[in-house]
């Protein structure tokens, strides 16, 4: 090989190595997949793929936690740091389904994680006759370590995530702060009860297959206290379920599921929280104030209108819902006129 060709190849590989190093350094600083503690440039972390970024965040730090929280996007907003007496990791993610929670729990257990407390936020949508999503990464199924950041952060796709983090909009309607506490991305957005909630009329809540999945999830950590809750839901949605005849199906699904748990609190009953449009931006995802109340009362009780489903019959639960709908009937009517 001629000296000229050797020099050319040296410069080519040198340039490629420099570009790779630059891309890695930029991605590591912004850290869109949460390998290194998050964004070092701004105090905002976007959630591009919580199913991957949350394992990256906890990997190697499992011993720092004695509690884990599972659920869908609504549960990501639960302030884990306000669960008294515990150090919780919030493992909730967008469109999370019960089968996925089992896979993630088994992955954590394989890594030596042994919590004293497991919290599950239930979605009533899981009790509809629809196949649950299952988007578990291969390394979770294999109970292996996450992909190395030295590979992930050489990707052009990840480079685009870094640029979007600094100069674009959040891919979700939620963001995480420097400490990975989740909140709504668009604080000025306010719920309009006249706007139908997505998937509200998908069907009644007659599928009971998730109950066996919750039992399996409980069995992964049999020594842990197993606590469940139903996230708040717009009082107008509950009123709509009553109007079309689905309210008994809804309350029965939650009551049946509650039997699996050591504690179960229902925050979706019509209440001062769920009748206030300022408390939510879409009727299902609630504000920091609302979720602070949930975190404060989840283990010890004391929420003004939430129901302890372990302490009441199915009939009394349905009657309580109907009583609350009557109590707030005037406000329900006024907001939709």
Q: Which labels suit this protein?
A:
337 residues; alpha/beta; six-stranded mixed beta sheet; two-stranded antiparallel sheet; 13 helices; 41% helix
Describe this protein's structure:
The protein has one domain (31-334). It is built from 13 helices and eight strands. 41% of the residues lie in helices and 9% in strands. Helix 1 (3-30) packs across helix 7 (156-167). The mean pLDDT is 93. Strands 2-1-3-6-7-8 form a six-stranded mixed β-sheet. A two-stranded antiparallel ribbon has the order 4-5.
What's the overall average pLDDT, rounded?
93
**Low-confidence region ranges:** none
Number of helices in the DSSP assignment:
13
Secondary structure tally: strands: 8
CA-based shape: elongated
Major sheet strand order: 2-1-3-6-7-8
Any idea what the radius of gyration is?
23 Å
Overall number of structural domains: 1
SSE string, helices as H and strands as E: HHEHEHEHHHEEHEHHEHEHH
Cα-to-Cα separation, first versus last residue: 82 Å
The biggest beta sheet is recorded as: 6 strands, mixed
Strand content: 5-15%
Structural class, by secondary structure, is: alpha/beta
Helical content class: 40-55%
Topology:
Elements lengths: L2 H28 L19 H9 L8 E4 L2 H4 L11 E3 L7 H13 L6 E6 L15 H4 L7 H4 L3 H12 L6 E3 L5 E3 L24 H12 L4 E6 L4 H10 L2 H12 L4 E4 L21 H10 L9 E2 L5 H14 L1 H6 L3
Parallel strand pairs: 1-2, 1-3, 3-6, 6-7
Antiparallel strand pairs: 4-5, 7-8
Helix pairs in contact: 1-7, 4-8, 10-12
């Amino acid at each position: 090989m001629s000296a000229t060709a050797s020099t050319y190849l040296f410069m080519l590989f040198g340039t490629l190595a420099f570009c790779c190093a630059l891309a890695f350094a930029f991605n590591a600083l912004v850290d869109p997949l949460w390998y290194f503690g998050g964004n070092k440039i701004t105090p905002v972390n976007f959630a591009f793929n919580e199913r991957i970024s949350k394992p990256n965040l906890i990997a190697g730090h499992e011993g720092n936690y004695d509690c884990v929280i599972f659920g869908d996007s609504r549960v990501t907003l639960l302030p884990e740091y306000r669960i008294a007496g515990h150090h919780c990791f919030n493992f909730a993610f967008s469109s999370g389904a019960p089968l996925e929670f089992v896979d993630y729990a088994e992955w954590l257990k394989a890594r030596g994680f042994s919590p004293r407390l497991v919290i599950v936020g239930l979605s009533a949508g899981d009790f509809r006759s629809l196949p649950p999503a299952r988007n578990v990464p291969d390394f979770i199924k294999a109970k292996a370590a996450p992909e190395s950041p030295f590979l992930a952060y050489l990707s052009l796709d990840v480079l685009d995530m870094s640029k979007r983090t600094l100069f674009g909009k959040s891919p979700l309607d939620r963001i995480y702060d420097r400490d990975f506490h989740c909140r709504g991305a668009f604080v000025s957005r306010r719920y309009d009860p006249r706007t139908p909630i997505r998937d509200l009329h998908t069907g009644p809540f007659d599928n009971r297959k998730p109950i066996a999945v919750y039992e399996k999830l409980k069995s992964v950590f049999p020594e842990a206290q197993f606590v469940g809750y139903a996230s708040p839901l717009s009082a107008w949605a509950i009123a709509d379920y009553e109007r079309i005849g689905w309210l008994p199906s809804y309350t029965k699904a939650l009551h049946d599921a509650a039997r699996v748990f050591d504690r179960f609190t229902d925050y979706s009953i019509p209440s001062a929280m769920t009748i206030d449009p300022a408390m939510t931006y879409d009727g299902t995802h609630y504000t920091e104030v609302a979720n602070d109340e949930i975190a404060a009362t989840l283990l010890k009780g004391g929420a003004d209108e939430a129901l302890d489903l372990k302490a009441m019959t199915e009939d009394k639960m349905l009657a309580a819902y109907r009583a609350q709908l009557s109590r707030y009937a005037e406000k329900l009517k006024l907001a939709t006129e």
